[in-house]
Amino acid sequence: MNKFGLDYWSLDFNLNVFLQTVKTHNWTVYGIRQQKDTITFYASVLNRNDLIKTYPHIIHLKTTGVIGMLLRTFKQLDRLIAAGAAAALWLLLSSTVFNIEILGEGTVNRALIADTLVQLQAMPPFQLTDKNVLKQQLNEELKRSFTWIEVEQNGSKLKVRFLPKKTVEKEELTRNELIAQKDGVIASFDLQHGEKCVKINDVVKKGDLLVSNILLDSMNLPEEIYVKGRVFAYTWSDFSVEMPNNSLPEGVQFFQLLFQARRIISEELGEDEKIVSENILQFSVNDDKIKMDLHYTLLEDISSPGE
Question: Which InterPro entries match (predicted)?
């Protein structure tokens, strides 16, 4: 047999007719075997196209010799290259941060963390090779404002938790009623003192009375009481952000605007307030600027003491 390589074939065909065809085409074949109606044989790789053209249903089983080894090597090489490329892409994406969530007490504190992240060029999407380095940088930059800062990475999402340094303030109780500061749907109460005037799932408008300072006693007589607490409601906000167009890929611009919107919204949220849902209404790019329109559902404390 040809040591450089032979094709091994399987063909459902009449053996005598096949041998006549081999003679007609002057093919060189080896090791012809017949089992029932199936013929197996070896042939030169140079005859491959003729065999396929003559017998479209012929089945190629393998290639032997040096040529076969080279073909198998190249196939494995392709697989190795593909696997290497997939691994490299996975490593790249696994170290890319597309979303940052800042968790802690106080709107001002969250805004300070967000601004510091921007200064450290930790603005999505960005590569994070070592979360401990970022944690150390944040703690060093903000050591006067926070007791500790923790950085946690879960895939492409980064969570920054913090504990601010607190000053003890003397608590004063008042008898001021709690008034709705915006429209919303009542979600929950955090009430220590006061008489509820609304219930969960009630729709309220700005200016509605939420918690009263009047309680009827056992004689059905009004009694003025202290009011302390918060009333949380689902609220809605339409929001737009824009920035100058740049040479970055459109996907990167998209995430930059999205993070900018989340950062601005988060700066306006207080303790225990949060973003419930986020819907991107429009993302547009032109020669001068890129713009994103969003709709947010928020959980907010809508109560404020009246006069």
Answer: YqfD (IPR010690)
Residues paired with 152 in a beta bridge: 159
99-103/157-164 β-pairing: parallel
CA pair distance 130, 5, nearest whole angstrom? 52
User: Is residue 292 a contact partner of residue 241, using CB atoms and an 8 Å limit?
Assistant: yes
Q: How many CB atoms lie within 10 A of CB 132?
A: 8
* Cα–Cα distance, 100 to 258 (Å, whole number): 11
- The pTM for the full model equals 0.51
- Residue whose structure tokens are 């879960």: 154
Angle between helices 107-119 and 131-141 (to 10 degrees): 120
User: Residue 24: which domain range?
Assistant: 1-94
Say how far apart CA 33 and CA 45 lie, in whole Å.
19
Decide if 16 is inside a domain.
Answer: yes
How many domains, in total, are found in the chain? 1
Per-residue pLDDT of 94-113, as tens digits, reads 567 778 888 888 777 888 88
Establish whether the linkage from the previous residue to 124 is cis, with ω within 30° of 0.
no
Band of residue 84 on the pLDDT scale cut at 50, 70, 90? low
Compute CA 279 distance to the chain's CA centroid, rounded to the nearest angstrom: 14
